[in-house]
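User: Run a structure prediction on this.
Assistant: Running it now.
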Amino acid sequence: MELYQLKSFLAVVAERNLTRAAEKVFTSVPAVSAQIKALEEELGVQLFERSSRGMTLTPAGEKLAEEARRTLDAAQRLRHAAAQIRGDVQGVLRMGTVSDPISLRLGDVLVRLAERHPGIGLQLMQRLSLQSVQALRRGDVDCAYVLHDNETAEGLIVNRLRRMELAIAVPRRFADREWPVSRDALLSLPWIGTPVVCGLRAAAERLFQSAGREPPHSLMAETESAVRGMVASGLGAAILRLDQAQAAVDAGELRIWPHWQDETWLCWLQKEGPEEHALTAVRELVEEVWRD
């Protein structure tokens, strides 16, 4: 029995699908299938029921999945103990990020990480904020930068790094022709929305709900750069981080509506409970960068 077989086993448990499990452990579908088959033969039990709907654990598989998790956790603790004896920290962390690495100060974090902990590798996984929260809860990432309104999140540690002021960006074609003076006039413009899982969506919902309206869904963009580009192209108004909106104003792309303000937070999230040494090292570097 090999540890990689247990990792593949738990990937199939989580995904209930061989293709997605193979992507999760960075191998091929035939390799994962062969590993599960070899594990079943060695253990002498059937781990999964296979059907057109996917892979479902058998009762034996349910019992052994928990043992597999404990085994992998023990192996990880052994590696960390050895790293401490050697005086270094090693590991690979999967970090969820939002789309703007400059605002995250990721460059500073990566430089200091390479200098102080060369044995730690980071896999950066760009997602929308609430997608990173969901991935963190599923165990698909170890930590994440997100735009997050609340001070707490169930089962997660929330470390607020920086307040992010928000602004309403208006295309120049509306500003030059008929500048919206009232909130109703503003909300009557075409609008560019963001998905529910975007960190800016909550502010848009608050704005429209204050006027008794539903946020529009006709125009949608997933990244701030895409939203900014669509506003600059004259397609509609939208909510942006103030620093991004101001940069666009300075470039002559759009204007900011001055009668509204809101905010969100750039946060560092990780799961509650004991943390691995590699995660501790990265978290401390992130906190250090944001203190400087």
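The CA atoms of residues 169 and 256 lie 5 Å apart.
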